[in-house]
Design a protein that fits this description.
Blueprint: H1 5-45, H2 80-99, H3 108-121, E1 124-126, H4 135-138, H5 154-167, E2 183-185, H6 190-197, H7 199-216, H8 219-223, E3 228-232, H9 242-249, E4 252-256, E5 271-273, E6 290-296, H10 306-310, E7 314-318, H11 325-329, E8 331-336, H12 342-347, E9 351-355, E10 376-378, H13 386-392, H14 395-410, H15 423-433
Parallel strand pairs: 1-2, 2-3, 3-4, 4-5, 6-7, 6-8, 8-9, 9-10
Helix pairs in contact: 1-3, 3-15, 6-7, 7-9
Region (Disordered): 70-98
Main location: Golgi
Protein name: Exostosin GT47 domain-containing protein
C-alpha cells in the first residue's frame, strides 16, 4: 500500500525532527552539565560557587557552617580509626551539600548558558548627561563624579551600580553606538529627585525628562520605552501623562529590596536587587544558641504573638535600625515581617523566614534563584505555630537550606570592581533576560 505523496513528506519530516531531537538531547546531556560545571568552578574563584565533583575546591563559606552542616569533629582522645571515620563522614556530608548546589537555581543549565551569553554579547547605551539643562537641573547620575561610591543605603546602591557600569575599567557592557545596544539606560536619579523635589515633584520632572529623550532621540518611540531601564529605590507620585505612563508601564525599573510602600512594581518586567550592606562575613562555626531571631519595625509590634515575647528560644527586637551582625550569627532562623535584613540573614548563615499574606516581589533575583530551597515563607495565621515547624525540621534539611543560602548570598555581594556572578553581574543578567520583552511599535501616521 502506497501513501499519497503529501503523507510521505509529512512522515519523513517527523522522522527527521525526531532524529534531530535525539541528537540535541545527546548534546544537552553531555555538554550542558560540563559547561555548567566550568561556570561553577569560575564562581568558586570569586565568589565561591564550586563544582560538586571538584574535590580540591573548598568553599569559603565552610568556615561559617554551623554544627548542623558540620556536626562531626574528632576529640583529643579519639582513636585513629574513629578520627578517620569522622573525617570521612564530614567529607561525605560536605559532598552531599555540594551536590545540592544545582537546586539553588530554577534551571541551572539554562542559567549558565544565558549568563555566558550575557557576558559576551550584552551592550547598553547610556544617554548622555543632561537632557533638560545643567547637571543640577537634570538630577542625573554623573560618571565624572567621584562620589558615586557604594554605601550603606538603598540610594547609595543605585548610585554605586551606575558607578560600576559607567566607570568600569573595560566598559564591558557599554556601547557608544545605539544601533548595537540591546538596552538603553536612563541616567536620571529618582533618589536625587525625591530628595530635592519631594515625592510629589518627581513625576512632573520625569514627564519633561522623557519628553526630552523622545524629542532628541528616536529610540524611545521605537518601543515606547520597553527596551529602556532606570534605577529607583523610592516610590513617588506619578502624573497622568503619556510620558509617565510609558515609563512606568513599559520601561524596566531596577528597584532595591525591600520595595518602598508606594513604589509601583510590575513583576513581568521590573527587577529587584539587593541593597549594599558593609557587613563582615560570619566566621563562627559554633552551634547557634538561638532558635529564631525576630526583627520587626516598631509599627509591627502588635502583630507579634504573645508566646514569642516570653519564649527563651526566641530573641525579639523591635526597632527601625539595623541589627548587629552577632544576632544573625547566633540564630538558626531569622524572621522578617517587613523584608528587611533578609539578605543580611543569608550572608551570616541564618535561614530567612518571611511573614507575608500577599505575593512577595521583594526577593532579589527571583528569576534565577530558587528561593524556595533556602528560605521559608509563612502567613500571619501560621506565626503562632512556627516554633513547631522550626523544631521539627531535620538537621539534614536545615544544613542544606543554610548551605544554599550561603551560596545564594554570594550572588548578592556588591564589589567594585565587580566579580563574576556577583550582584552587579546578576543585575545585568536579569536585564539581559528582559531584552526580549514585548516592544510596542508606534503606529504609522498614515495608518
Amino acid at each position: 500500500m502506497k501513501f499519497p505523496r503529501k503523507q510521505r513528506v509529512i512522515v519523513l519530516t517527523l522522522l527527521y525532527v525526531c532524529a534531530a531531537a535525539l541528537m540535541i538531547c545527546g548534546v544537552w546531556s553531555t555538554a550542558f552539565p560540563r559547561r555548567f560545571a566550568e561556570s561553577r568552578h569560575s564562581f568558586e574563584e570569586a565568589p565561591h560557587l564550586v563544582s560538586g565533583d571538584d574535590d580540591t575546591a573548598i568553599l569559603s563559606s565552610s568556615e561559617i557552617w554551623t554544627a548542623g552542616a558540620r556536626s562531626l569533629s574528632s576529640t583529643d582522645d579519639a582513636t585513629e580509626e574513629s578520627a578517620q571515620e569522622a573525617e570521612q563522614q564530614t567529607s561525605e556530608d560536605e559532598g552531599d551539600l555540594q551536590s545540592s548546589l544545582p537546586q539553588l537555581y530554577h534551571v541551572p543549565q539554562i542559567f549558565a548558558l544565558n549568563y555566558e551569553e550575557m557576558t559576551k554579547n550584552m551592550r547598553v547605551y547610556i544617554y548622555p548627561n543632561s537632557q533638560t539643562g545643567s547637571m543640577n537641573d537634570s538630577y542625573e547620575y554623573d560618571a565624572t563624579n567621584g562620589n558615586n561610591q557604594l554605601g550603606n543605603s538603598e540610594e547609595a546602591t543605585t548610585t554605586g551600580f551606575f558607578n560600576i557600569l559607567a566607570k568600569g575599567k573595560n566598559h564591558q557592557f557599554l556601547t557608544s553606538d545605539p544601533d548595537e545596544a540591546h538596552l538603553f539606560f536612563l541616567p536620571v536619579s529618582i533618589d536625587a529627585l525625591h530628595s530635592a523635589l519631594g515625592p510629589d515633584g518627581v513625576g512632573n520632572h520625569l514627564r519633561h525628562y522623557i519628553e526630552s529623550i523622545r524629542g532628541n532621540y528616536t529610540f524611545w518611540d521605537r518601543s515606547l520605552g520597553a527596551d529602556h531601564f532606570y534605577l529607583a529605590s523610592r516610590g513617588y507620585e506619578t502624573v497622568n501623562h503619556r510620558n509617565n505612563l510609558e515609563l512606568t508601564k513599559n520601561a524596566v525599573q531596577v528597584a532595591c529590596s525591600p520595595l518602598a510602600p508606594n513604589q509601583a512594581f510590575y513583576p513581568h518586567k521590573d527587577i529587584v536587587i539587593p541593597h549594599y550592606q558593609n557587613l563582615p562575613a560570619s566566621s563562627s562555626s559554633s552551634p547557634r544558641s538561638t532558635l529564631a531571631y525576630i526583627n520587626l519595625d516598631l509599627a509591627q509590634s502588635s502583630l507579634l504573638p504573645e508566646a514569642w515575647k516570653s519564649d527563651s528560644d526566641f530573641v525579639v527586637e523591635a526597632s527601625n535600625g539595623s541589627p548587629d551582625a552577632s544576632v544573625f550569627e547566633s540564630s538558626k532562623f531569622c524572621v522578617s515581617l517587613s523584608m528587611r535584613n533578609v539578605v543580611d540573614a543569608l550572608r551570616h548563615g541564618c535561614v530567612p523566614v518571611v511573614v507575608s499574606d500577599s505575593i512577595i516581589y521583594d526577593l532579589p533575583f527571583q528569576d534565577a534563584l530558587n528561593w524556595h530551597e533556602f528560605s521559608v515563607v509563612i502567613g500571619t495565621e501560621e506565626m503562632a505555630d512556627v516554633k513547631s515547624f522550626f523544631t521539627s525540621m531535620s538537621d539534614a534539611k536545615y544544613a542544606k537550606m543554610q548551605y544554599l543560602g550561603l551560596q545564594a548570598s554570594k550572588h548578592m555581594e556588591w564589589n567594585d570592581p565587580p566579580a563574576a556572578y556577583d550582584a552587579f553581574h546578576m543585575t545585568m543578567f536579569e536585564l539581559w533576560m528582559r531584552r526580549h520583552s514585548v516592544k510596542y511599535s508606534r503606529r504609522s501616521e498614515t495608518s
